[in-house]
Write a structure and sequence with these properties.
Layout (H helix, E strand, L loop, with lengths): L18 E8 L5 E4 L7 E3 L12 E9 L6 E10 L4 E8 L4 E5 L8 E3 L12 E8 L8 E7 L5 H12 L8 H8 L7 H5 L2 E2 L5 E5 L8 E7 L5 E8 L1 H4 L5 H9 L3 E3 L2 E3 L4 H7 L7 E11 L5 E12 L2 E4 H10 L5 H20 L8 E7 L5 E8 L2 H22 L2 E2 L2 E2 L4 E3 L5 H13 L9 H15 L5 H11 L4 E3 L23 H14 L9 H31 L6 E10 L2 E6 L5 E5 L9 E4 L4 E4 L5 E3 L3 E10 L4 E6 L11 H15 L1
Parallel strand pairs: 3-5, 11-18, 12-19, 28-33
Antiparallel strand pairs: 1-2, 1-4, 2-3, 4-5, 6-7, 6-9, 7-8, 9-10, 12-13, 13-14, 14-17, 15-16, 17-18, 20-21, 22-23, 24-25, 26-27, 26-32, 27-28, 29-30, 30-31, 32-33
Helix pairs in contact: 1-14, 8-9, 10-12
């Protein structure tokens, strides 16, 4: 691993009349600020100087004025490089000869002019999705088209679409992209089959969530005459269908990732590709890109092969099916499943022994009615069936990255989208270590490796205790964020010196790039993409946007769910502390809401102790600390702001929480009814 922060650059100053590239952020007042990477100070842009730029766009700005005393700068936007958002939600305003689209947004933007031929059935005052078609510098108004009409009763659909649109994810595919997808052949080419390793006669299966439609990975297994096992990790060959320079490729790059919301998937690729051509559905021949390992039953890799294959999946498992086989030792292909499980657990143990950090993952899932309204919340944890797939995918990703990293052209590494994770920052780590110590967990910070081992010991010791979830969440927050980059500094969290994403090209664009680079190496024609780092940055940015969108979607559903439980009391854990109150996450649903300090003022005057992640009463000394268990009452649920407000329920002296007994009984009876 290279030294930490090897990529960090010092910020330079802006010189007047210089034209720079940055991201425009528009305030509610209408003023704009262009934020420029690695440059000190934002550039103020007044509303009349936006040209055709909108909030979130990447633009070129010319600095026209600089206050030498304050360092504040003003500029004019000269060009829109890329648009963040091209689809918007709003209302149609229809006149006799023309129509306008008025966007629903708190960030000022002009109305779109809609030619009557582009209304597509929309009527006056209809709520619609509109797409920006054209906005030249000489145009007074941007020109748009109506993509779809939203039904007034379907509030949930509108909310989810709004989240996607605001995050810059298109809600539909352009016609030329759909046409290109429809032209792709559905029958596998016989000549292409001959050029691939044929794995169709080997036992192969997929393991995915029960509701999945895009199966992008499969596992094959057979015993060799040597007593070794051949285990194949087969990945949908998206790059066979999606070629550089095509409309499909441009759209996939623009999106860079699929977005998974509680009631839908906003895919990176059209369903014709993601759910049909490339999906490794059972009892169908499919083209794949594979990592095939010869392994002992102890998980030792003796040799591997990387290349294009054709497979035939014999069986489709849901994770629950495989979990049942692991627990009962009975089921379809039980011997093979149990062997793979055993090898996966060995790989996992080896990984942790080398310093990988064992953060457990919890996933909130919603039981929805036909309108998308949540009628139940489930918390799913990673089990052995998930770990089985995870370990073999990690092995394939690591092996591909190691293979590519060995090759150099003109003594320089090949531009390649590594997945990297930096070492912990000492400053961020210090308050967390102090907090963990108060819960009895000590850290050895002498080396990055001992920090990782300390993390694992803490996570193991805290398992099942009230503070477990808070320590995990705080621990994750202290970590650097994993990103894509051509500069390989290794992956600290996984304890891998080389790592990439190879196993999900249906839903992640970097995986498509990995496939292309790897195939060029296999063909002895290594590709040198000079824009690879730019593509990595774009993919990392879109990944962050997707994660924020997914979090917002989950939050919306949680608020919508608890809207039906106003006044009820739930057990929770304090998950965050600020000067204005503390956040509580309910134990049962993982729904986070704020207990305002105003509501606590009757009891004491509370102040924040930052290093202790707590609020402390000045008179009583009463403390609310992260990780503490408390009881809260749901006071309000604001869907528009995706905000929950809780009230702390005070403990009675020497006994039960006031009002909890009856409320708990009510919750239990409601659960029985739902069952």
């Amino acid at each position: 691993m290279n030294k930490k922060k090897s990529k960090q650059k010092s910020k330079s100053k802006i010189t007047a009349q210089l034209t720079l590239k940055g991201k425009l952020e528009v305030t509610r007042s209408g003023m704009g600020y262009v934020i420029i990477e690695n440059v000190e100070g934002d550039v103020l842009v007044r509303p009349g100087d936006f040209t055709t730029a909108l909030n979130g766009d990447t633009v070129r700005v010319k600095v026209i004025k600089e206050n030498m005393r304050t360092g504040k700068k003003e500029g004019k936007i000269t060009e829109v490089v890329t648009r963040k958002q091209t689809e918007f939600i709003g209302h149609v305003q229809l006149s006799t000869n023309y129509a306008f689209f008025i966007p629903d947004t708190d960030k000022p933007m002009p109305d779109l002019f809609i030619p009557l031929t582009e209304l597509n059935g929309a009527k006056n005052k209809d709520r619609v999705v509109a797409r920006l078609l054209k906005w030249d510098k000489d145009d007074k108004k941007p020109v748009g088209t109506i993509v779809s009409i939203m039904q007034p009763e379907d509030e949930n659909d509108a909310a989810m679409k709004e989240l996607l649109a605001q995050a810059g994810f298109p809600l539909s595919f352009p016609e030329d992209v759909m046409e290109e997808a429809e032209r792709l052949p559905e029958v596998l080419d016989a000549t292409e089959i001959k050029n691939r390793k044929d794995c169709r006669d080997i036992l192969t299966f997929t393991i995915d969530p029960a509701d999945a439609k895009d199966f992008d990975d499969a596992i094959s297994i057979r015993k060799l005459s040597s007593g070794m096992y051949e285990i194949g990790v087969h990945i949908a060959d998206v790059s066979y269908y999606v070629h550089p320079g095509t409309e499909l490729d441009e759209e996939a790059y623009k999106r860079a990732t699929s977005v998974y919301l509680p009631d839908r998937v906003n895919p990176m690729l059209p369903e014709k590709i993601s759910n049909e051509l490339c999906s490794l559905r059972p009892h169908e021949d499919k083209f794949t890109f594979s990592a095939i390992f010869q392994m002992s039953n102890k998980g030792e890799v003796k040799q591997y092969w990387l290349g294009k294959t054709v497979i035939h999946s014999d069986h489709r498992y849901a994770y629950e099916d495989v979990q049942q086989i692991i627990e009962t030792k009975k089921g379809v292909n039980q011997d093979e499943i149990l062997l793979l499980h055993d090898i996966a657990q060995r790989l996992r143990k080896i990984r942790f022994s080398k310093g990988a950090i064992n953060f457990s993952s919890q996933e909130v899932r919603f039981k929805l009615d036909e309108k998308g309204k949540p009628i139940g919340v489930m918390v799913k944890e990673s089990k052995e069936s998930h770990q089985l797939i995870e370990e073999f995918m990690l092995l394939a990703n690591k092996t591909v990255a190691e293979n590519v990293s060995k090759l150099k052209i003109n003594k320089k590494p090949i531009p390649f989208p590594y997945r990297v994770h930096d070492r912990p920052d000492a400053e961020k780590l210090a308050p967390f270590i102090a907090f963990a110590k108060k819960h009895g967990h000590n850290f050895d910070i002498s080396t990055p490796e001992t920090i990782a081992f300390s993390f694992n010991k803490m996570l193991a010791d805290a398992k099942g205790k009230p503070e477990q979830h808070v320590l995990e969440q705080l621990g994750i927050r202290t970590m650097a964020k994993a990103i894509y980059t051509t500069e390989n500094i290794g992956h600290y969290g996984l304890a891998f010196e080389q790592y990439c994403h190879f196993t999900s090209p249906i839903r992640r664009y970097p995986d498509v790039l990995v496939h292309r680079v790897l195939q060029s190496i296999i063909e002895n024609k290594p590709m040198v993409d000079k824009k690879m780092e730019e593509k990595c940055k774009h993919s990392s940015e879109r990944e962050r946007a997707a994660m924020e969108c997914e979090r917002a979607g989950n939050k919306y559903k949680q608020v919508e769910f608890l809207k039906g439980h106003i006044g009820e009391v739930f057990e929770g854990v304090i998950s965050g502390v600020a000067s204005f109150g503390f956040w509580v996450e309910t134990v049962e649903h993982k729904c986070e809401g704020l207990v305002s300090i105003i509501g606590l003022s009757d009891y004491d005057d509370f102040r924040q102790v930052e290093g202790d992640y707590s609020l402390v009463g000045r008179r009583s000394g009463r403390t609310f600390r992260m990780g503490d268990k408390v009881w809260i009452r749901v006071v309000s649920a604001n869907l528009e702001k995706r905000q929950l407000d809780y009230e702390w329920v005070m403990n009675a002296e020497g006994g039960e929480v006031k009002g909890v007994k009856s409320e708990k009984s009510k919750v239990k009876s409601d659960k029985k009814k739902n069952k």
